[in-house]
Amino acid sequence: MIFGLAFVGAAWCAAATPVPLVSGTPEPVVLQLKWKHQFQFAGYVVARERGYYREAGLDVTIVEAAADRHPVTEVLEGRAQYGVGTTELLLDRATGRNLVVLAVIFQHSPLALAVRSDRVQNVHQLSGKRVIMEPGSAELVALLKREGLLDTGVPPQFLSPSFEPHDFIEGEVDAMSVYQTDEPFLLDAAHAPYQLLSARTAGVDFYGDNLFTTQEELLNHPERVAAFRAASLRGWHEAMAHPEAAVDLILAHYSKRKSREHLLYEAQRSRELIKPEAVEIGYMYPGRWQHIANTYAEVGMLAPETSLDGFLYQPQAPWQVPDWWRWVGAVLVLMVVAALTLAVAVARTGGRAERRLRLVLDHAPTPMLVTDVEFGVVLYANRRATAFFGWTRDDRASLTVQSSCVDLSERDALLDVLRQRGGVVDQEVTLRRADGQPAHVLLSASVSTYAGRPALIAGFVDVSGATSG
């Protein structure tokens, strides 16, 4: 019965949201970017130049960022109806600004710290070092706070940003915030010694660029909001499918600030963070936003238990959904956690724990795996996991976690968190089935032992069918 409910629930989530058609004279609206024209905003360029906004009844002006032009301010004061922002929109919302996130473009933030590898080998060696940190780097601040760098007697020396890597390349600073989709192209060209430190290694995994508007815009112009969002995502789908054509549009109509090679580099690196093969562009998971809010609260940047009510846009469904359907996903996650808790308890009892553990895993209502921590070898998989991946009996002898992960950096970041905390609940991970198709799952895992060696016991819920809104 539970799996029947899950199937129907996934089918509902995957129901296509109707794209509104606005007739008459196109309505003028403004989209305020958070930076200058580059591939980071390619989807909006494609939507405008290919006429998708026009088809939706909109005449869209795309405005670059400037020193006196912040997306949140421009949107709140009515000079723009839509903007592109970071997860700091949560912090703005908490101050009483009625902002609404319409869609997430980057599933993982491109923001990182570039450190001079000839001076700094890890985040703790930033103590007392000169660091350029741009505005809007809350996740990097969270990284430093979580690692205890801001609570030491010798914290990093923060310098005003120049938004150019010259000071870093010349060795005048020890670290600087960068977009891993952008500045590394210049650092590589200059043969600068560097490595990137991502907040994800400390379990700070934020969304990247987010399309947003105000509560007033949504209340007064719901059809316009839906039309703008749908046309924007249509543009992003095309930009991801044909990045070279998108780059050509940027160079021809918007900016020659970057070379074609630089823009194509940005396109490739952006693809790794947008993950269009695995996640529907625009998809955002409320549990992920809650995790982001909890992280902000943990480092003192947001009040605990901040409500997300009204913050996340809900596309109109073609029919009204009973309230009890909203609990299906939560029930499935709780089932995974319950099965995982029992499995770990059994694994730690010693004696014939391995046989008892297999019995527990085989009767779990969700896919369950046991993997070796050191080498990533799959030590055991229950029937539901085998069916989910499409593994055969012959596959089982040579399976590794690496072969089942779309993004190995995602696995490495997950392992780092597990080493620090011993477990995770409801973590978003993209897995690959035996036929090569990606699947987006919510994974819960705990470090334990199996056959006398450190192992990871994990269970997950497939939410690939719920990634259309």
How is this structure best described in words?
- The chain has helices at residues 2-13, 42-49, 52-55, 71-76, 89-94, 138-146, 166-169, 183-189, 215-220, 222-241, 243-253, 260-274, 286-298, 326-347, 353-362, 383-389, 408-421; strands at 27-32, 58-63, 82-85, 99-104, 111-116, 130-132, 157-159, 175-179, 194-197, 210-214, 368-372, 378-381, 423-432, 438-450, 453-462.
- The chain is of the alpha/beta class and 469 residues long.
- It has 3 domains: 18-105 and 208-298, D-Maltodextrin-Binding Protein, domain 2 (3-Layer(aba) Sandwich); 111-202, 3-Layer(aba) Sandwich (D-Maltodextrin-Binding Protein, domain 2), CATH 3.40.190.10; 323-466, PAS domain (Beta-Lactamase, 2-Layer Sandwich).
- It has a 5-stranded mixed sheet.
- Residues 1-22 and 317-327 have low confidence and may be disordered.
CATH superfamily of the largest domain: Periplasmic binding protein-like II
Q: Give the CA-based shape.
A: globular
Name the poorly predicted regions.
1-22, 317-327
Estimated share of beta-strand residues: 15-25%
Q: N-to-C terminal Cα separation, in Å?
A: 25 Å
Q: Give the integer mean of the pLDDT values.
A: 82
The CATH topology label of the largest domain is D-Maltodextrin-Binding Protein, domain 2
The strand count comes to 15
Q: Per CATH, which architecture of the largest domain?
A: 3-Layer(aba) Sandwich
Structural class: alpha/beta
Strands of the largest sheet, in order across it? 2-1-3-10-4
User: Biggest β-sheet, characterized?
Assistant: 5 strands, mixed
Count of distinct structural domains: 3
User: Helix tally?
Assistant: 17
Helix content: 25-40%
**CATH class wording of the largest domain:** Alpha Beta
- Taking all Cα atoms into account, the compactness measure Rg is 23 Å
